[in-house]
Amino acid sequence: xxxxxxxxxxxxxxxxxxVIDGNLDKAVWQKAEKSRPFVDMVNGEPAFLETRxxxxxxxxxxxxxxxxxxxxxxxxxxxxxxxxxxxxDVEVFIDGDxxxxxxxxxxxNTIYExxxxxQDALRRGSRFDTPEFDLYTRNxxxxxxxxxxxxxxxxPRGKRxxxxxxxxxxxxxxxxxxxxxxxxxxxxxxxxxxxxxxxxGISKMYASRTFxxxxxxxxxxxxxxxxNMRFNGQNTGSAGWALGAHGAYDSHRPECFPYxxxxx
Length: 264
Description:
By secondary structure, the protein is mainly β. It is 3% helix and 37% strand. The protein has one domain (8-263): Immunoglobulin-like (Sandwich), CATH 2.60.40.1190.
């Protein structure tokens, strides 16, 4: 069953200092409201490995914490901005005005990030007409929208510039593994991810909104987990899980992202 209307989840304000170290046993995270378990992003069936996320905020940052059950924690990529989706990973997408941001992380705490700007919004004299988003000097790719009818639907807005060398300002990340990474002879419990996204970076994604938020404000943020399937020594693709299903194996659908609702 797919989610027809975007879902909401709570992001509560905290006055406690949060040290980003991957440890979600800290008291501050025990007070946060965990999401329901993730589901298949296409059909809404329960993910076979439990995955949950919680969020908090303060005057400086938006925080996200992930709990990922995993009997065999694996990772291979160690270079920043490697194609992390080839590993098991956690992904965060943050929506903006005419743009959105993608973040990925694996169990080695290796990250990948991209800023996407719709081509019809990046024009001379627009707010994106800056050296940071210069098409001639930056590492830029094009995302045109997935067109395989068996898995994807083409996005109605069309092509997006993908700024592959974008770095979210002030981003902090940490991972903690409960087990032994890349050792299939040991049964692991899983891994946790802790993230801090400063409001100054999110503010840049909007034309006029101000952050930090106030009571009742919302922000569209989607969280995913991709699990690489292996049978008989062969990779057979990745299962894609999210907070809610939206009917397509396509994470690049900002109009389907859930809403974070900020609570004081």
